Amino acid sequence: MTQVLVVDDEAAMRTALEANFRRDGWAVATASGATEALAKFRGAPCPLVVTDMRMPDGDGLSVLQGVREIAPETAVVFLTAFGSIPEAVLTMKEGACDYLVKPISFDSLKQAANRVLEKSRQQQSGEDDRSGEPANERFTGSSPAFRRLLDRARQAAASEADILIEAESGTGKELLARFIHSSSLRRAHTFVAVNCAAFPEALLESELFGHVRGAFTGASAAKPGKFELADGGTLLLDEIGEMPLSLQPKLLRVLQEREIDRLGDTRPVYVDVRVIATTNRSLKTLVGEGRFRADLYYRLNVVPLSIPPLRERREDIAELAKVFVHKYTPKSAARPVSISPELLERLEAHDWPGNIRELENFIRGALALSESSTLGPDSMEMNEAIGIASSAPSAAPAAGTSMREMERQLLEKTLESTGGNRTRAAMMLGISLRTIRNKIREYGLPPRRFQ
C-alpha cells in the first residue's frame, strides 16, 4: 500500500484528497500546516508528499526543504493557485517533482503522483544511468559557457519539469532539447517535434491535439496529434512564441491536466508527455505586449535554459569548424581536408550572427568550392566568402533596445547588405527562406525591396 502525506490548511480540501486517495488504495496521513506536516513526516516518512503552496505557518518551500533533509528520495508535488505560480516555479528549481494549478481534478493529481513515484523508483534502482554526452556534432563544445549549459541541462533532464529554452536562431535549440530527452528517463520513448510557426492556426490545433473522423471538412479519417504521438516521451514545441493567442488556453490546460481534447471528440484523452518549448524571442516581452499569456509563460518557464550565442563562446568555433569539415568532406576525397591557422583566426574573429547554422553553411559552401586539401583565406575565393559573411551587422545595439527592434534592425541591414537577396540573407542569418518572408511581413518591411 503506497503512503502519501497530504498537507493543506483548508479542511475541505484535505478531506476530499484523503477520501479520493483512500478510495484508490493509498495509505493517507494529513496535516493542516507546514509545522504539523514536518512533525508527522519525521515520525513516519513516506514516498510522496502532496502539499499546498501557501499556509498560515509556512509555505510549500519550507515543507520541501524539511522533507529533503529527512528523506531526500521523497517525491513532492505542489498544489497552487495561479497567483502563486512563480513560487511554484521556484520550488521546482529547488527539487520539487511537479505542481498542479487549482482547481484540480483528482485524476490529474493521481496521474502526476504515479508518474513522479515511478521516476523516483527508477532513480533509486539505478535505471537512470546515462553518459549525458551530446549525440549530435552540431551540439558540441568545450568552452566554460557551453559546459555550464550541459551541466544545467543534465540537471533539468533528471526532473519531469517542463522546460523553456530561449536562445538566438541557429544556436541549436532543438539539439539541446534532444540532448535533454536522451539524458532523461524518457529516452526509450518517442521524441516528437512540431514547429508552431509552420502551420496556420486551424491546422496547428489539429496537428497538436489530433481530430476524429468528420471533425471538419476533409477529415475523412481520425488522426492522432503530436501530443498522442509523444505519449511516454518528449514533445518539442518549437517557436512557441508564434502560437496564436486563441490556442494558448488549450495548451495551458493540457500542461496542467495532461489531457487533450481531439477536434470533434466528446471525451478527453490522457497523455504522459514532457514538454520542451523553444523560442528565439523573449516570451516575457511578448507577455508585456499582450501577445503571450502570462499563465502559460509561467507554466512553461519552470526550468529556463539559455544557449549562449557563438560570439560568446568563441573557443568553440574552431572545434565546430573542424567537425563540419569532417562531416562535409566528400568520401571520395583523396586526402583529409584541414583548415589553415589563418582561416581559423578569421573564423574566431567573426561574430556569426546566424550562429552555428551560419558557420556550418559557410564550411559546407567552402568545401563545395575547394580544390585544395587545405581551406585557407586565399583559396576558392575564401576572402570574398568571409567578406560576405562579415557584411552582416555586428555592432552592439544601444542600451535599452528591445529584442524585437534588434531583430528588425538585423534583418533589414542584412537584407540591404545582400542587395535585397532573400535567399542569400537567409543563409547568412542561418534561418529559412520562409522565416525571412514571414519576418519581412511581420515588421512591415517593403516587400518589393527584398526579392
Question: Can you give a write-up of this model?
Answer:
This protein is 45% helix and 14% strand. The chain has 451 residues and is an alpha/beta fold. The chain folds into four domains: 3-124, Response regulator (Rossmann fold, 3-Layer(aba) Sandwich), CATH 3.40.50; 144-306, P-loop containing nucleotide triphosphate hydrolases (Rossmann fold); 310-390, Helicase, Ruva Protein, domain 3, CATH 1.10.8.60; 403-449, Homeodomain-like (Arc Repressor Mutant, subunit A). The chain has a five-stranded parallel sheet with strand order 2-1-3-6-7, with helices on both faces. A five-stranded parallel sheet has the order 9-10-13-8-14. Helix 13 packs across helix 15 (355-369) and helix 18 packs across helix 19. The chain is globular. It starts with a strand and ends in a 9-residue tail after the last helix. Mean pLDDT is 82; it is low at 126-135 and 379-394.
Query: What is the CATH homologous superfamily assignment of the largest domain?
Result: P-loop containing nucleotide triphosphate hydrolases
CATH C-level name of the largest domain: Alpha Beta
CATH topology of the largest domain: Rossmann fold
Instruction: Tell me the span between the first and last alpha carbons.
Output: 68 Å
What is the architecture of the largest domain at the second tier of CATH? 3-Layer(aba) Sandwich
Largest sheet, spatial ordering of strands: 2-1-3-6-7
Proportion of helical residues: 40-55%
Q: Mean of residue pLDDT? A: 82
Shape: globular
Tally of alpha and pi helices: 19
How much beta, percentage-wise? 5-15%
Q: Structural class, from helix and strand content?
A: alpha/beta
> What characterizes the major β-sheet?
5 strands, parallel
Tally the structural domains: 4
- Show unreliable segments: 126-135, 379-394
Number of strands: 16
The whole-angstrom Rg is: 25 Å
